[in-house]
Design brief:
By secondary structure, the chain is of the alpha/beta class. The chain is built from twelve helices and seven strands. The chain has a single domain, classed as P-loop containing nucleotide triphosphate hydrolases (Rossmann fold, 3-Layer(aba) Sandwich), CATH 3.40.50.300. α8 links the parallel β6 and β7. The chain is globular.
């Protein structure tokens, strides 16, 4: 039998710029509380084993529970981005947001996909609602008119619906068309600690707006055969946005999703991801489980639907890891 790893994409041309791989900078303007435990960058110590084999034995308690924040804002904006469909962008946005809110953070989720899956997944009705589309085209000026609370304390949403599919056409003739989302979010940034933008699976103008509005980008990556294909293009897009529109944009990390440690194939893909991206891969790995579709149908995050399930524990750990890495307050 042919060696399956021999067929793994070689990522021709994937030169990840060194400064994109630099450690995420903690925001200078926010002071850490004296009592806040400083988390070890688990797994990133020199010589620490980083392999798919090690993942299955990892426990979900590597990062400390973040200390309460003495004050809120200004928000760090994170784009959840991968132009490949169905890799876990929306699931990650919802569960990371709910987990951060569970740790006392004030979180705003922006549904930036006309499919409206994030809005639905948080039980938000978009019928007759003011949506991100109304803000983008200037029909509604105050972002607060579109913000809806969810059932989770500290977690708000700007919803989207199918109207958003017309936005790219509308925006194309606008002045500073790539900066429209940034100017919208700037107006509410002081009221939140974290803003998560759930992107649609494309690298079009909406995604460029999300990257321009963000401090960091997270890339959920499905642990399957063709996952790495397309990442080179995504990295190239991130790099273009950095050099032309948003020099402060950082790659916060690659999140392996839908990992099934029982298959050789998934382990090989994960090892290749570690090889290419090194410490930029989150320690937290999201396993594959049918609980996610179940939670989506119920319209609640898995951290609420099945809080003790390993996948819920994994997302709570991701929230703690993000704080420990300085990518969230
Ligand atoms: N870890 C997982 N294990 C199993 N199923 C999952 C997992 N994460 C997400 N799913 C399911 O996979 C599907 C796609 O996930 P999701 O909608 O989060 O991906 P996406 O990247 O946002 O997709 P799109 O590109 O269409 O916006 C959903 O049905 C979701 O419930
Ligand atoms: Mg989605």
């Amino acid at each position: 039998m042919a060696n399956p790893s021999a067929d793994l994409p070689e990522l021709p041309g994937l030169e990840v710029p060194a400064d994109l791989l630099a450690p995420t900078r903690a925001r200078p303007e926010r002071r850490r509380a004296e009592s806040e435990p400083v988390a070890p960058a688990a797994g990133s110590e020199p010589g620490a084993p980083r392999s798919a084999e090690a993942v299955s034995t990892r426990l979900y308690n590597k990062f400390p529970v973040p200390a309460p924040l003495p004050e809120h804002g200004p928000a760090r904006v994170i784009a959840m981005c991968n132009q490949k469909g169905g890799v876990g962008k929306t699931t990650t946005s919802i569960n990371l947001a709910a987990s951060l809110a569970g740790y006392g953070r004030r979180v705003l989720c922006v549904d930036f996909d006309p499919q409206g899956a994030l809005s639905a997944g948080l039980g938000i009705s978009t019928h007759n609602a003011t949506t991100i589309y109304d803000l983008l085209i200037g029909r509604e000026q105050d972002p607060r008119a579109a913000i809806q609370p969810t059932d989770f304390e500290g977690l708000d949403v700007i919803p989207a619906n199918i109207d958003l599919s017309a936005a790219e056409v509308h925006l194309v003739t606008e002045v500073a068309r790539e900066q429209i989302l940034a100017s919208i979010l700037r107006r509410v940034a002081d009221e939140y600690d974290v803003i998560i933008v759930d992107c649609q699976p494309s690298l079009g103008l909406l995604t460029v707006n999300a990257l321009t509005a963000s401090h960091g980008v997270m890339i959920p990556l499905e642990c399957e055969y063709f996952a790495l294909r397309g990442v080179a293009l995504l990295i190239e897009t991130i790099d273009k946005v950095r050099s032309r529109l948003n020099p402060a944009l950082e790659l916060d990390g690659i999140l392996p999703t839908m990992f099934d440690g029982r298959t050789l194939h998934a382990r090989e893909v994960l090892d290749r991801v570690y090889e290419v991206f090194g410490d930029k891969v989150f320690d937290t790995v999201i396993g594959r489980t049918v609980k996610f579709p179940d939670a989506s149908i119920a319209g609640v995050p898995i951290v609420e639907f099945a809080p003790t399930h390993p996948a819920a524990q994994a997302y709570r750990q991701l929230a703690r890891e993000l704080v420990a890495r300085g990518a969230a307050a």
